[in-house]
Amino acid sequence: MAGALHTITLPIRGDGKGDNVFAHAATLAKGSGAHVRVLHCRVKAEDLMPFGMVIPGFMRKQIEDAVKRNSATEEDNLREEFKALAVELGLSEQAPEKGKATTSFVEYEGKQVEAVRHYGRLSDLVCVPQPDRRQNLGSNTLKSAIYSSGRPVMMCPPRDGAPETIGNHVAIGWNGSLEATRALASTMPLIKAALKVTILTTGKEIHAATAEELAEYLDLHGVIASVNRIERDGNIGRSLLKHAGTAGSDLLIMGAYHESYERETIFGGNTQVVVDEATMPVILVH
């Protein structure tokens, strides 16, 4: 997978999920010689002030001081964890160096959506944890990455330790939609670097390029891909996960949220089922 990626951005916060995502990013970085930018957001005191309420000056000062102390403590703790994990995962803490797996810790003052927008747009990939909707954790991070970065977003499911491989066998969910087309275009470096590529389709590409035509297109790029026509058994997202796993894929690439994010989140659309139930890394592109 050498050269497939150059910059991977990983937004973190003190929720305990960053270690797992860092491990996923490290696996990709070591395969590509990429740089992992670990991005921590320091909240601004004014963002925590009650909206529309007049706050006395002395109280505002107390809030600002408390926010600064807490943010500094969290940053110090995360930096120490980052340094230890970088060594454990085999990444060199330094500026980007072509062909070498490296990493750096970046502090951003402001909202996470702003940080992802700022750094994500000049990244080859943004990595985020799989949301836990039961505890209401991670959904906003995933949404902001998908909708504000304009880049492919890899959702990392929880696991013990770093995955041995990511992207050796890529499964592409294909229905001919604009979202699937954007996913294809933005992940071509990963697809070209894969040892095996499987196209998953239900064969319902109405008025759009078929899976066989996609295979011919990939062949022009030097990629030999097989087509796996799957039976739609209930939710398509669940079928994609099932067949990607059966095929032995270690990465699924797909278009995301053809319906609106809000509609899919509420009614359980195809993408939302993948987000909720995936046990392998999934790259999502809107």
Give me the Rg, rounded.
Answer: 20 Å
CATH class placement of the largest domain = Alpha Beta
> Per the principal axes of the C-alpha atoms, what is the gross shape?
globular
Q: How many separate domains make up the residues?
A: 2
Unreliable segments of 5+ consecutive residues: none
The biggest sheet, with number of strands, parallel, antiparallel or mixed sense and barrel status, is: 11 strands, mixed
Give an account of the 3D structure.
By secondary structure, this protein is of the alpha/beta class. It has two domains: 7-156, HUPs (Rossmann fold, 3-Layer(aba) Sandwich); 169-285, Rossmann fold (3-Layer(aba) Sandwich), CATH 3.40.50. It is built from ten helices and eleven strands. It has helices at residues 18-32, 57-89, 112-120, 139-148, 178-186, 188-193, 211-220, 236-247, 261-267, 270-277; strands spanning 7-12, 35-42, 92-93, 102-109, 125-129, 153-156, 169-173, 196-201, 225-229, 251-255, 282-285. The protein has an eleven-stranded mixed beta sheet with strand order 3-4-2-1-5-6-11-10-7-8-9, sandwiched between helices. β8 (196-201), α7 and β9 form a beta-alpha-beta unit. The longest helix is centred in the first third of the chain and has 33 residues, at 57-89. The two termini are 24 Å apart. The relative contact order is 0.14. The mean pLDDT is 88.
Label this structure with key terms.
2 domains, alpha/beta, globular, Rossmann fold, 286 residues, eleven-stranded mixed beta sheet
